[in-house]
């Protein structure tokens, strides 16, 4: 199948969903499901072996759960179940276009080179950069930041850089409105981003402080080297990085204001804001022709590289819905009753196990997270506990992502560093990931006691 089909069907799938909020589109749900199926078919030949097997199995089992014409029709329509999550995943990366066009990462590089003299400073700067820029540019930030710190003076401290990048990035799962984890929780649980944000940010600050303290205890000096040859003045670099921070904060504030003034969900506003801001910002930085060229690069580059995640997100939603239609909520309820789990604080460790163990054998956390979210959000037993379930889902997701050798995060870091993903997952990050979950559990317990 021609490569152009992949970005085209992806953009049509997400675009019809967003347009349907403003323009009546006949058969919009059918069209979204149709293009979702086209995305699955077009990307399938390009997927790695493990996702191919996983998607094939889920697709086959989903059809076999109810092999009637009505059941097949329902399964087809369920391909759009996660479309609100997919819209965020598709369109938020547009913000990386003006960030790269404005060369903001070059200014970050200048600040890195000027201020980092010891390994704990390298850890802190890398963690903050991965968590802040990564919150908007997603996983694509990691190879860029790795390259920025791959200088003669920083190169000997490879493990410090890898730990900082992975830990800083996953902490954004707890608070970023641009992340798929936040979209999933907001989609299924009766909570708002303003409720989740301070909790997630507090856990992030605690974990960053603990990581920094640990690195400072064993800090080593970084031998001075001419790590970067740049004619950019430090004062200009500071100003441009401050400018970037203000813009991103303004975009987030705009999203919250629009949510309060309209009936639109934050899940719809985020991709719309990403589209509008990226266009305006890019035109302020360059010409319309440059914008068109950058958009072509976005379609042929970023969207073309999304096949693995898009396919898994689509199939996770359809499979989760199929399971729910065939009594998955009863199965989970039976499991909880068998374990005598009727309290949310007892449920959270079970969620962590259910998300982590499958991820170790290659099952993406979005699949188990979707099934758990659909089931638990409809459970009357936990109807008053959606806030705790949401934060617990974040923590379990981070635990699964950091400790799975098959997660996109660890596979990417393994590819750019030429280390084993098993080494990164279990040797470098397992203890820290478990600590994140325990701290999150302690915060949830404290909130439960005082709220």
UniProtKB/TrEMBL annotation:
<feature type="transmembrane region" description="Helical">
    <location>
        <begin position="428"/>
        <end position="450"/>
    </location>
</feature>
<feature type="transmembrane region" description="Helical">
    <location>
        <begin position="84"/>
        <end position="102"/>
    </location>
</feature>
<protein>
    <recommendedName>
        <fullName>Citrate transporter-like domain-containing protein</fullName>
    </recommendedName>
</protein>
<feature type="transmembrane region" description="Helical">
    <location>
        <begin position="264"/>
        <end position="285"/>
    </location>
</feature>
<feature type="transmembrane region" description="Helical">
    <location>
        <begin position="12"/>
        <end position="41"/>
    </location>
</feature>
<feature type="transmembrane region" description="Helical">
    <location>
        <begin position="241"/>
        <end position="258"/>
    </location>
</feature>
<feature type="transmembrane region" description="Helical">
    <location>
        <begin position="53"/>
        <end position="72"/>
    </location>
</feature>
<feature type="transmembrane region" description="Helical">
    <location>
        <begin position="394"/>
        <end position="416"/>
    </location>
</feature>
<keyword id="KW-0472">Membrane</keyword>
<feature type="transmembrane region" description="Helical">
    <location>
        <begin position="306"/>
        <end position="325"/>
    </location>
</feature>
<feature type="transmembrane region" description="Helical">
    <location>
        <begin position="169"/>
        <end position="189"/>
    </location>
</feature>
<keyword id="KW-1133">Transmembrane helix</keyword>
<keyword id="KW-0812">Transmembrane</keyword>
<feature type="transmembrane region" description="Helical">
    <location>
        <begin position="361"/>
        <end position="382"/>
    </location>
</feature>
<feature type="transmembrane region" description="Helical">
    <location>
        <begin position="195"/>
        <end position="213"/>
    </location>
</feature>
<feature type="transmembrane region" description="Helical">
    <location>
        <begin position="331"/>
        <end position="354"/>
    </location>
</feature>
<feature type="transmembrane region" description="Helical">
    <location>
        <begin position="122"/>
        <end position="148"/>
    </location>
</feature>
